[in-house]
Amino acid sequence: GSFRISQGPGMSPQGVENSPPGSFMRLLEAFHFVGMYDLSLFDVVGVHAIGGNVVFIHGSDEQLLQHRERIDSINDVYCFGGTELAHGSNLKQIQTVANFDPDMDGFVLETPSATGCKYWIGNSTFVADYVVVLCRIFVRGEEQGFGWLRVPLWQEDEEGAKSRYPGVDVRDTGNKAGCNGIGNGCIRFDKVRLSR
């Protein structure tokens, strides 16, 4: 879209190290312009860059090929699902789990308790199309450590009407004293099925 044009060719918030010389300055100028106009929009773009960067850092070559263009152009908007209500980003306490299901060759994502919901997630209530979720990965009942899953927040029917993706529940955390356009929310997952 228009943000990509202001970035210049080959520049993305996530691809600074691979961008042509001078692109980073054009990116900073674009962020400066957006921030002068609307701080909430500035936050939306910044949170999208953080979420999209997770895909770029942790995604496979195939995933990068599949998603990079839509992330760079902001045709798909991302949010970052790391923090949880009871423990912020304390990794030892993260409750969200993803169990590998060999029958579907994918994962089943679950929030096991109210205190484990992803909380204060910017862009989640009405802006983002996807959330990248930090979770504990289990295979055959054994924990494998932490991982990131790309989770759709919406689905479309044949007529193009959007509804929440099955098993994803997003609630607005309410107005803040500052930038309310970023749409902070609380996200819970109830047996969300995700293919690899």
UniProtKB/TrEMBL annotation:
Residues 79-192 form the Acyl-CoA oxidase/dehydrogenase middle domain. GO terms for molecular function: acyl-CoA oxidase activity; FAD binding; fatty acid binding. InterPro entries: Acyl-CoA_Oxase/DH_mid-dom, Acyl-CoA_Oxase/DH_mid-dom_sf, Acyl-CoA_oxidase, AcylCoA_DH/oxidase_NM_dom_sf. This is Acyl-CoA oxidase/dehydrogenase middle domain-containing protein. SUPFAM superfamilies: Acyl-CoA dehydrogenase NM domain-like (SSF56645). GO terms for biological process: fatty acid beta-oxidation using acyl-CoA oxidase; lipid homeostasis. Signal peptide: none annotated. GO terms for cellular component: peroxisome. It comes from Pseudictyota dubia.
